[in-house]
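protein under study:
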Amino acid sequence: MDLEVVTVGTELLLGFTLDTNAADIARALAPLGVRVVRRTTVADDTAAIRSAVSESLDRTGFAIVTGGLGPTRDDITKRAVAELYAAPLELDEAYLQTLRNRFAKLGRGPMPETNRSQAEVPRGVAVLPNPRGTAPGLWFEDTTGVAVLLPGVPQEMRALLKHEVVPRIQQGREALPGGQSTVVRSRTLRTTGMSESALGEQIADLCDNLGQISLAYVPGVSGVDLRLTAWQLPDKQADDRLAQAVGTLRPVLGRNFYGEGDVELAAVLLQQLRLSELRLATAESCTGGLIGAKLTEVPGSGDAYVGGVVCYSNESKTRDLTVPEALLQRHGAVSEPVVRAMVDGVCGRFRTETGVAVTGIAGPGGGTPEKPCGTVYIAARWGDRLESAGRWFPGERDEVRQRSAQAALDLLRRLLG
């Protein structure tokens, strides 16, 4: 089963709002064996909306549309699609009372008259209740095809998708001859410390032996994810093929692999520390506390993470981490000797067995021909073992900081084995 997604909103085209709805829809429908084959974004314009939905129905017969169901003048999706289905709008008195009750319950006074338009429902269309907002979902269906209208507010859209749309599609699939028989399923292998091109060369010879599994490279500031997807296979067969593909790739990825799915490197490192009953401290200059933030985003991080020092200035490095002034004058704050002294200092201050440190030039200013923007030094310590490295990271300031934090955590992960 194929369908298309149409997201409505001028703010999406201007870039002021990110379109997360289309991604949420694709992820929710894949386990049902439903493929999103095209995504289209249009402005708050009646002709554009009508044309996008009409073309989607012509190609697949099924469109999910998000956005433009609110009470303001730019919310015109319902009328545009109702015209396609020749379904005149009629006031639903029961839903109008539901809206009034909602406003009364929230203590916001009488319902604004503009919300009355949200109780106007196209004739013959199924209403999908929206307990999280005022705009109901709408299910159009006739010989033209199926068009499902959902609110653009992400949390409202996700709730309706889960509780109304997915069950209806599931029931429809099961009613087909043979019932629900295939799925679209993915597994993600997370890697760090290797570029996309180098990773591609490393596993190139294996890609032809993955069977009915497609492989996609998904690079980001944290590393490169490998997305393995089984298409239109029976449930168990999809799992078996994915497991075989993972078993083929994992040994070749070696220590560049650190986890599956959405797991973060910080969580993997913290688990290593817990299992070894080790405690961690951090010393950060250019990352400004980002490493500590990544660690403390993980629930239960206090079992292993003790604390850290943000030492942005030379004075702070000397005062808080006992980095010798002579070392700073001789090598500069952005140097391997200084980052090694920083990790020694933070481990001593917090009396921990492990530590990581980072110092660098995140940009956009401060670089020199010898040390351009993006120059970073990282260090990791475990007991008497201390490793350090110099790196150059491309990108804007935030990218350099994100890559630096990831590299520092990864250095300790590898040191711990």
User: Anything to note?
Assistant: The chain has three domains: 2-174, 183-260, 265-416.
